[in-house]
Amino acid sequence: MGWLVALVVWTAAGARIGRVAARQPTPLRVAMVVAVSSAAIASTLAVPDVAGRLDTVAPAPGLSQIVLELAWTLFAAASAVGAVSVWPILPRAALRAVAVVVYTVAVVVGIGLAGGYPVPALVFIVIALTAVVVTGVRHVAWTPLGRGISLIVVGSATVLAAAGVGLVREVSGQTWTVGSSPAYTVAAVIVSVGTVWVLVETWLRARQDLRRMDTLHSVLVTRFPEVVEGDGKGSTAVLRASDAVAHVMDALYLQAGAGMLDTDEQDLPESTAERARILARWIDDPVASDVLDTEWIALPQGMSPRRWVLELADAYTEFGTSAPAPAQADTADSAAD
Q1: Which residue from 66, 264, 291, 295 has the highest number of Cβ atoms inside 10 Å of its Cβ?
Q2: Roughly what angle, to the nearest 10 degrees, separates helices 182-223 and 144-171?
Q3: What pLDDT, on the 0 to 100 scale, is given for residue 53?
Q4: E strand or H helix at 5, and its extent?
Q5: Please, which residues have CB within 8 angstroms of residue 39's CB and are 6 or more apart in sequence?
Q6: Cβ proximity of 10 and 193 under 8 Å
Q7: What are phi and psi of 176, to 5 degrees?
Q8: Would you state the pLDDT for residue 326?
Q9: For the chain, give me the number of helices (H) and strands (E)?
Q10: Cα separation of 76 and 61, whole Å?
Q11: What φ, ψ does residue 326 adopt, rounded to 5°?
C-alpha cells in the first residue's frame, strides 16, 4: 500500500512539474509543485523499505525520520505561500517578501526539528495550514477548480489536525514525530488528487465533448473544409475540443450566409431546445429547409459557445436517429421499367 500511495503522489507531482514547465511559472504554480513534491518525498519515506535503506547508507542514524519531518514542514510552508498568493490585497513585490519570510521560518524550524525540537515545527505547521484552510474555504465552489481546492482543503485540514494532536502531546510531555500518523499518508493522497483535479477533469470533459460533437463536426467540416486550419494532430484533447467548437460555429456562420441573408419574418422560438431542433434539420438538409440567418445560430442568452455547440450536437444526433430512413426503390420494378 505504501508503494501505491507514493506512486500516486509522485504522479501528481510530475503532472504539476510538467504544468509549470509548459506554462509561465507563477508563485501559486511553483508553490503547488513544492508542496506536492514534499508530500511525495514524505510518502516515499513512509515506506519502511525505503526508510530502512536510507538509514543503512546514512552517516547518522534516523536520517529518514528527519527528512520525513522536514518534508512535511516544507509542505506546510509551500501550501501557505500558495494560499497567500491568491490574496487580492497583496501586490507581487509584497508576495515575494512574504514567501521569503515563510520559507526562512520553515528553514529555521526545520533546523530545530533536525536538532530534536519538534514543537516549533508543529506550531509552524498548525499556523501555516490554518491559513491554507481558511483561504481555501473561501474559494470552494462547484466548478472543476473549486472541487480541486476542496480536496486540497480537506487534505490540509487532515495534516492540520494531525499536527495539532502532535503539538498537544509534545506539550504534555509525550514524544511525537511529525509525519508519523497514518493521517499524513491519507492527506498526501487527498492533496495530490486535488492538485491535479482540474487537469484530469478538464481532460475528461474535453474527451466527452469531442465524442458528443463528432457527428456534427464531421458533417460541417466536410461541407466547409475552409474552417479547419491544420490537421490538429499532436494537440491536446482540450485544444482539439476548443477547436471543434470554433469549427462548428464558423461553419454555421458560412451556411447561414455569412451575414448576407435576412429573415426577419421568422421569429426565433423561445425554447432553446426547439431552436436547436430546427437548426438540426437545417444542418442536415439546408436546401429543403427554410432559409435561416445568423440570428438563428447566435448564442442564446447566458450560454457559452461550448454549451451551445453541445446542445446543437445533441439535437443533431437525436435528429439523425429519429429521422426516417430514405425510401429505397424496388429493384424488381426498376428492372421491369
Answers
A1: 66
A2: 170
A3: 85
A4: helix 2-22
A5: 9, 13, 71, 72, 75, 187, 188, 191, 192
A6: no
A7: -140, 135
A8: 46
A9: 13, 0
A10: 25
A11: -65, 140
Residue 308 vs residues 207, 233, 241, 303, 304: alpha-carbon distances, Å: 17, 25, 13, 6, 6
Name the one residue in this structure whose C-alpha cell is 504554480.
Answer: 29
Q: Domain for residue 331, yes or no?
A: no
pTM of the model: 0.78
| DSSP for residue 291 | P
Residue 273 has a pLDDT of 92
Q: Does residue 332 register a pLDDT over 80?
A: no
Cα–Cα distance list, 73 to 21, 78, 286 (Å): 25, 9, 65
- Give the distance from CA 36 to its chain's centroid: 15
Predicted local confidence at residue 334, as pLDDT? 42
Average pLDDT over residues 177-181: 62
Between CA 148 and CA 132 the distance in angstroms is 14
Residue 329 in any domain: the answer is: no
Question: Is there a single domain that holds both residue 237 and residue 312?
Answer: yes
Domain count within the chain: 2
Residues 177 and 232 in one domain: no
CA distance 77 to 69: 13
25, 34 contact by CB (below 8 A): no
Q: Do 12 and 188 form a contact (C-beta atoms < 8 A)?
A: no
Burial environment of residue 225 by CB neighbours within 10 A (0 to 12, 13 to 18, 19 or more): exposed
137, 153 contact by CB (below 8 A): yes
Nearest to 283 by CA among 307, 239, 318, 240: 318
Band (pLDDT 50/70/90 cuts) for residue 322 is low
208 located within any domain: no
Take residue 67 and report the three cell numbers written for it.
Answer: 527528512
Residue 72: domain span: 2-196
C-alpha cell recorded at residue 247: 469549427
Contacts of 232 (CB under 8 A, 6+ apart): 239, 240, 243
Contact present, 277 and 319 (Cβ < 8 Å): yes
